[in-house]
Design brief:
By secondary structure, the chain is α/β, with parallel strands linked by helices. Helix content is 39%, strand content 16%. Helix 24 links the parallel strand 17 and strand 18.
């Protein structure tokens, strides 16, 4: 193999999905020194972004001023990545590019890669010409092309060939490639693209290194990796292993000691904390073409046991889940179609009274004393979501749950609670229903559809099977005077669950018969707010 190979490490960019790109300067400097010693050619320090929603660390923006404060070895070229979706949000793509990048001669960054899906290629390619005019080397990273036809891939390669792009990458986004399919993609791209080809592999099935090496043997000349494979879900080709293979190809030895020391002191503890890396669930996601974020989400939730994980994977396999959508993870939605039924009318308990919904955010524990004093003073009907037990059980009137997998996982805990459990009995599979007689429960029906909220005496219609939608429906069908919420803090950063909850609240506010909502603890959602300490 005689061609010049460029080895690019993107640990801080891809790994930042775990820690909100919030790496310390000390760690970054140690990492850069290790990259230089290991003969890494290019380091992609992070993203370049205009998005200011929520807290993200420096490597989410990777500004020139921040980079100038780092100890960057002279031998290491620096790059950043920008998402095509963000550029395309702007009415004027040129303005977006110029807002992110100045002349390359005035920047410590020399390479910009644009990550895009197939449908984004045409609209975003003009950005490559603007970046080239600014003096940058430009890469295009194609995502999720593994299942595309030869003609589709050739067409995209032809489109890219008409622009001043330095390297055309493809990513094994779902982690399902083998060596032969990797080779096929490289050679298919080369039918219409004469420039450099790059590969970014994922390790769902333990094939990242093998696929990377096969791509190089077929003529790819750029290859990505991350330290310990740090990246979403199963992670990527591991830099420490790929560097060894690069030494064989190049006939030149680098010094691996700084990298291995950094792995032991910094990255292994991070891996133990966040849990990236291959496992049987990621293997199945790669085999079935399921987006690995689904697996990552479930593994982060301790209420998903082995049986629930496998059941959801089977559901996603049948439904098709190449793109992550939080609604697909709610397999319970499939069980709540059709007309609703129920046997309990919540107005027997709730009519004319305030309802206080206790969600699971950390603000409940932080303000527990004040919340409990408020309950004692104002005597609302207290509804706790799922197994949330921060507030004293003596103060809770009802507990609500509706997701079948969560009910399976939490079943034994519900039998320990004093208060009645409200659930949509008729909709639950027999694996849950057979043991329900052991519980003290009320049957309030639920139908999930796209028609928004509608409220009936013993059942309700809602746009989502999430428990907050179910609780709002119960309180409203019960003719509450108003609804107060505690503990609906929201999720960190750009977690897609925030968008889903916000949509539920918007749908609720647009529904006929909706009630006034307010939060008495901190929340990122669009809710009227007051302090529990002011009441």
């Amino acid at each position: 193999m005689t061609q010049t190979i460029t080895h690019l490490d993107c640990t801080l960019r891809d790994g930042g999905y775990y820690n909100r790109w919030d790496f310390s300067v000390e760690l970054i400097n140690q990492y850069l020194a290790a990259m230089a010693a290991t003969n890494i050619d290019v380091v992609e320090l992070g993203f370049r972004s205009l998005d200011t929603d929520g807290f993200r660390g420096a490597c989410a923006y990777t500004g020139d001023d921040f980079i100038r404060g780092l100890s960057v070895p002279a031998a290491v070229e620096l790059g950043v990545m920008v998402n095509a979706s963000e550029l395309l949000k702007s009415e004027d793509i040129a303005s977006a590019v110029h807002a992110l990048f100045k002349q390359a001669s005035d920047s410590p960054v020399s390479l910009v890669r644009i990550a895009c899906h197939m449908k984004e290629i045409g609209p975003v390619l003009p950005a490559s010409r603007i970046l080239k005019d600014l003096g940058y080397r430009v890469g295009i990273n194609l995502m999720q092309i593994a299942d595309r036809s030869e003609s589709e891939i050739v067409e995209v390669a032809e489109s890219v060939s008409r622009y001043p792009v330095d390297v055309l990458y493809f990513a094994d986004s779902l982690g399902g490639l083998d060596e032969d399919k990797t080779a096929w993609i490289v050679n298919t791209l080369k039918k219409a693209w004469s420039g450099a080809v790059g590969v970014h592999t994922h390790d769902n099935m333990g094939k990242a290194i093998g696929n990377s090496m096969r791509a190089l043997s077929e003529g790819a000349t750029w290859v990505d990796s991350t330290v310990t494979g740090m990246g979403r879900g199963p992670g990527n080709a591991q830099t420490e292993y790929l560097a060894i293979e690069m030494q064989k190809l190049r006939g030149a030895r680098g010094n691996l000691v700084p990298l291995l020391e950094l792995i032991r002191s910094e990255f292994k503890p991070l891996q133990e904390h966040y849990g990236w890396g291959k496992n049987p669930y990621y293997y199945l996601s790669g085999e079935f073409g399921i987006h690995p974020t689904y697996i990552q989400e479930m593994l982060a939730d301790p209420r998903y046991g082995e049986a629930e994980l496998l059941a959801v994977i089977d559901h996603l396999r049948a439904a098709g889940a190449k793109k992550f959508n939080i609604e697909n993870l709610d397999a319970g939605r499939q069980m709540y179609g059709g007309a609703g039924t129920g046997a309990w009318a919540p107005k027997e308990l709730i009519k004319g009274r305030e309802v206080l919904i206790i969600a699971s955010g950390p603000s409940v524990a932080a303000h527990k004393g004040a919340i409990e004093r408020y309950i004692a003073k104002c005597s609302p009907v207290v509804i706790a979501l799922n197994t949330n037990s921060v507030i004293s059980s003596k103060l809770v009137d009802l507990r609500v749950a509706c997701h079948p997998f969560r009910l399976i996982a939490d079943f034994q805990r519900y039998s320990d609670f004093r208060e009645a459990l409200v659930l949509p009995r008729a909709r639950l599979p027999e694996v849950v229903g057979n043991d329900l007689d052991k519980l003290n429960y009320f049957d309030f029906g639920l139908t999930v559809n796209n028609q928004g909220f509608k409220f009936h005496d013993t059942w309700a219609e809602a746009p989502s099977p999430l428990v907050i939608a179910y609780a709002l429906a119960i309180a409203t069908s019960g003719k509450a005077s108003h609804i107060t919420i505690a503990g609906m803090d929201g999720y960190a950063g750009e977690d897609p669950r925030n968008d889903e909850v916000e949509e539920i609240l918007e749908d609720y506010s647009a529904a006929g018969g909706c009630l006034e909502l307010r939060t008495i603890t901190p929340s990122r959602y669009s809710l009227a707010a007051t302090s529990v300490y002011a009441l």
